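Chapter summary example.
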Amino acid sequence: MGDAGEGVVSLQEWQGWGTTSPIPTLVTQIVEDLKVLEKDFDAQMSFGGNGGKLQGNLKTQEDKKHRATYQALGDSEKKLQFYAARQIACRILGSRGYLCQKCWLPVEDCMCSKVTSCLLCPGLRFWLYMHPKDFLRQNNTGKLLWQVFGVDVATLCLFGIPEHEEIMWNSFKLAGKSKVWCLYPNKGAVLKSVQDAFGQEPVANYEVTPAKQLKVDSTVHFILIDGTWSNSAAMFRRLQDQAKSVWGDEDLACLSLNPGASAMHKLRPQPSWDRTCTAAAAAGLLSELQLLPLFNSFGLDNQAEAVEHALTVLLEALTSRRLRMGRSITRKVRHTIC
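The structure predicted for these 338 residues follows.
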């Protein structure tokens, strides 16, 4: 994957990967620690393999140092934060000069020029609650949402990064519990269909301008859990625990969508009929909202089509790369929603 280049992560570089937040303090600290190791052992950092793992002479020393640091952290929350920051720091350093910052594909396979951007319906906002292992992952589909709609309305929140989670929860607190929904097919959760959640809202609550822009009292927030199915359960529990600490004993409300296959199913089969990739879930939500009287004049079907088109572009880019490298274009079933 190449070397790490310069060690310092600037604000411009950090936000170039798809976030609007300041640089997380612990990410900066771990990058600095890696550069000190590099100097002490007079060896250059190099990364490769899935997830941009550290390789070469520094790997053993880095493992020892950070394993000891992790074990010394008695608090489980601090351990999670350290784990998340270490994953992210290594992925950033290992991706420099190799991945396009916007589409997270190798520079020679950049798909950015083929993605069509459009405005998301005002009054709606997506939050990509992403596991650190899926950050900068090439076949991640959550990144497509801010490529299409922009980072201000399709916002990245990295699991275990306190600065990100604080920004997200501050927005939820301002909106209120009734305006926050999680797209997660958890049988133990409070599940509602899109029709049940929004079909009974009186149209009078919304003022439609001649430009057909939706004006609402407060934004409706949709959380999309972006990680493997094995990791998503812990991510959902964290959301539920935080919701209870903010709003009391009630569970975070979840939406169930009508199942539908996405273009990515050709490359990444899903484990069951009610599970699909993150971007396809967002497109499905927009399509279902479009059928309701409250939203049917805001072009949500066109916005859903823009996401589906981006999925097709991503599939074509990944397929072309695999064929060029002599790799199979089919995958074994993996338990993933990212």
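To summarize the output: The chain is about 40% helix and 15% strand.
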